[in-house]
Amino acid sequence: MLKQYRRHGWLDIVDDMPFVFITGTGIADMKKADLTSQVDGSRTVFTVPSSYSSNSLRVYYNGIRQEAGNGFSETSSTTFTLTFIPQDGETISVDYQES
C-alpha cells in the first residue's frame, strides 16, 4: 500500500492506481556551452563548440531562454543567429544535443 502525506496526515493510495514513468527525456544527453567570450557588442552569429542536432539548440541570453524563430535561428549545425545584438557584459549560453 502506498501512502501520501497531506496537510492533515497520511492517506492510503490504492495499489492499482496508474502511474506514468517518463524515461529517456534526453536531458542528460544535453551539452552545455558558455559563449559569452564571443559577445563583443556587434556580433549576432555565434559558434557552438560542436555540431548539434537540428531543433535541439536552447539559447539563453542573460540566463533567460530565448524562443527559436523569435530570439534566434539555427543557421548551420554549429552556428546560430540572434535577432538582437548582445552588448559587452551580457551573457550567452546554450544547451544542445550533439549530433
Structure report:
This protein is mainly β and 99 residues long. It has one domain (27-97). It is built from no helices and nine strands. Strands 3-9-5-6 form a four-stranded antiparallel beta sheet, with no helix packed on it. The chain is elongated, with a radius of gyration of 20 Å.
**Strand arrangement, major sheet:** 3-9-5-6
Note the main sheet: 4 strands, antiparallel
> Could you tell me the strand content as a percent range?
35-45%
Give the proportion of residues in helices.
under 10%
Which structural category do the helix and sheet elements fall into?
A: mainly beta
Count of all domains: 1
User: How many strand elements?
Assistant: 9
So how many helices? 0
Q: What number is the mean pLDDT?
A: 84
* CA-based gyration radius: 20 Å
Order of helices and strands: EEEEEEEEE
Distance between the termini: 44 Å
Q: What is the overall silhouette?
A: elongated
- Unreliable spans are none
Task: Provide a compact summary of the structure.
With 99 residues, the protein is mainly beta.
Key attributes of the depicted protein:
37% strand; mainly beta; three-stranded antiparallel beta sheet; 99 residues; elongated; four-stranded antiparallel beta sheet; 0% helix
